[in-house]
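Run log, item B.
One chain of 481 residues. Sequence copied directly from the ordering sheet:
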Amino acid sequence: MRSDYDLIVIGSGPAGRRAAIQAAKLDKHVLVIEKSRRVGGVSVHTGTIPSKTLRETVLNLSGWRERGFYGRTYKVKSDITADDLRHRLGKTLDHEVDVLEHQFTRNNVTMINGHARFLSRQEIEVTLPDGRIRQFKFERALISVGTKPYRPDNIPFNGTTVLDSDEILSVQQLPRSLTVIGAGVIGIEYATIFSALDISVTVIEPRTSILSFIDDELIDEFTYELRDRGIKLFMGCKVQNVHACDGYCLVDLSDGRKVKSDAVLYAAGRLGASDDIGLDKIGLNADSRGRLKVDPVTFETEVPNVYAAGDIIGFPSLASTSMSQGRIAVCHAFSVPNPAQPEHFPYGIYAVPEISTVGLSERELKEQGIPYECGIARFRETSRGHIMGLQRGMLKMLFHIETRKLLGVHIVGEGATELIHIGQAVLVLGGELSYFIDNVFNYPTLAEAYKIAALDAWNRLSLHDLQQDTEDTPDLSVVNG
């Protein structure tokens, strides 16, 4: 007996929607089940799109980008409120939802709202918003339920002054001071966004460094800027207790210090939202963080014809890579030839300033014993950077000493997440230093920093060549006796 659907997708985030549309383009009968009222998942409603929209709104209304010329006190709007931030957010989310719904309609993808639970390896039930239950048969399934904030029992979340990373988007009143617990990507993004509003921000992190997967030199540059604008960084400190008092919050630290602020944002990790979808019915088990194990090439789970993609499978937990994973999973599921996920993908952190990186870092090159040299450009060295009033920002490239091939690109500063794609293209295509030196870049642009950094690397590599020539030249005084 034929199944109701060739593919059922649980979750309509980046992985789920890309998988659904890919399957539909293969003329498959596809059903997407979304627990929330609107399509899009965490990415559209509480994660990627909202936080980046909030960032852009803050930078525009605060006049942040103009402060290099007009001073740190410059503002476009003197009294920015939470309503100002939500106004643009609402319009952006409505647009995203409209686009996604149109894509599903155009590709004949069926979507229903409800909570999905597996009944077996061929059947699933969906509890609809009105309480009714429907059951569907399927041949293949993709789990892309995403994640939810980690909420430890000792943190007194109240939705107003003690918030998780989803709740911070619906805050009714902007605090005058904010304590952020957790210096991961989410915590750092929100800490710097609220700091741009001239809100006093303190960041607490139990580890001794932030964003340890990013190149050390970039983090040094980034950390210096945070401290320079008044963000307090309490590194190597654990949170003992959080108290929501009348009119303020108090955080007790493991070293005996206390931090007082108007509000607390707890952003120390997220959990896979896999705890109530009937994994036991199909023989799957999630790890302690709610994540699922998959084949790293095909994204198939340990259960044949059941796949998982996106944040539910862990690192790198990016919307961009999640989309690629969803598409690759579907192509494998229906035996369609498809290239593997690229080895090099860009990582973007939408802090203020942005950080973006692709390829290997200096630390990784040293660990692997790869001979390399670097080239660095400061944004203030470019005419465009001066025009924009940029005081900081840098682009760093790493090249193999012998082959001159590009090994990694690391950027911190305005437009980093856009600029990185030039380096990504050259890296993926196996390009060398000569590309950046011989090519012509628009002038004035920040992209010109690539040529400046390349010339810096060329100068350093020339020293290696000179040293090699010296070592290869025989000592004639010895030969001639």
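Observations after the first pass:
- The radius of gyration is 25 Å.
- Residues 476-481 have pLDDT under 50 and may be disordered.
Flagged for discussion on Thursday.
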